[in-house]
Amino acid sequence: MTEKIIGLTEWFATPPGRYLLDWEQERFDLAVADVFGFNALQLGVPELDALRANRMPHRWLAMPEGDAPLPEAARVALVTDAAALPFPEASLDLVVLPHTLELSADPHQVLREVERVLVPEGRVVVTGLNPASWWGVRQGRARAMRRLGLSSRLYLPEAGDFIGPGRLRDWLRLLSFEIEGEAYGCYRPAVRTDKWLHRLRWMDRAGERWWPIFGAVYVTTAIKRVRGVRLLGPAWKPRRVPATAPVPLANRR
Domain Methyltransferase type: where (predicted)? Predict the structure, then answer.
């Protein structure tokens, strides 16, 4: 009997899915709270309000065509292709990508589009599932067994491919992004019930201390750098003009 494969939206409603969303929501709040500008964009995963802590006047939620229905939240929403964004060059100050790259058929092109629409010194925040975690190892093993024709239950949704944090850093640097920060989370094992997730909550503290890079999910923040461009801050203090010293004149007879 073939087990029903659940989609990403259904998986987010499961106990491990809610556990993951809670951690990511907290991290997005921290990452975007102090990013200033005028225009911000979230690409995908409407279950997260990744821009709720940001104070930019214009914030959009973009969803791929045919994806999950848009939420009823009071956010400006549009349907678009992440690899061909309907924004002019250098028009956005912030772009957040919650699992957008690993769900995309062409993640390189998505990143190129993000680089195109970001202003110099603009920021991108990316979250992804870590293949070097207990969740990633279990998912990889289940997929390998299925390819061999053996029955195995997937822990994560079938859709999407893992993009490790190291690969992501390399891709960003090739596009002249500078890595600003990286964090990992969700260290509890691949269990399915609220009961066991609650019992194993101590592993989050232990993981942050003893095996920090093996969290099930990671968040990476990067800044778009452009050679020859330097943003000038406000002149908080007026420049002082040195007073002209008096010049003594010799007496002439």
Answer: 78-126
- 139 Cβ contact partners less than 8 Å away, ≥ 6 residues apart: 154, 155, 156, 162
C-alpha closest to that of 183 among 26, 16, 13, 14? 26
In the CATH scheme, what is the homologous superfamily, with its name and number, of domain 31-224?
Vaccinia Virus protein VP39 (3.40.50.150)
Query: Percent of the chain, pLDDT > 70?
Result: 83
> What pTM, to 2 d.p., does this model score?
0.84
pLDDT at 154: 87
> What are 160-199's pLDDT values in tens digits?
889 999 999 999 999 999 999 999 999 999 999 999 999 9
Residue 100 tokens read as 């957008």
Amino acid at 68: A
**What is the phi-psi region of residue 75: left when phi exceeds 0, alpha when psi lies from -120 to 50, beta otherwise?**
beta
Contacts of 96 (CB under 8 A, 6+ apart): 28, 31, 32, 40, 41, 42, 43, 50, 51, 124, 125, 126
Cα–Cα distance, 228 to 125 (Å, whole number): 24
Domains of the chain, residue spans: 31-224
Residue where the block lists tokens 């690409």: 43
As given in the structure block, the two tokens for residue 36 are 């200033």
CA-CA-CA-CA dihedral for 171, 175, 181, 183, to nearest 10? -20
Q: Give the helix ranges, DSSP H, for the chain.
A: 8-12, 15-32, 107-117, 134-147, 165-174, 194-199, 202-210
Q: Is 87 exposed, middle or buried (0-12, 13-18, 19+ CB in 10 A)?
A: middle
**Largest Cα–Cα separation, the chain:** 119
Reference 186, options 153, 213, 162; nearest CA is: 213
pLDDT of res. 160: 83
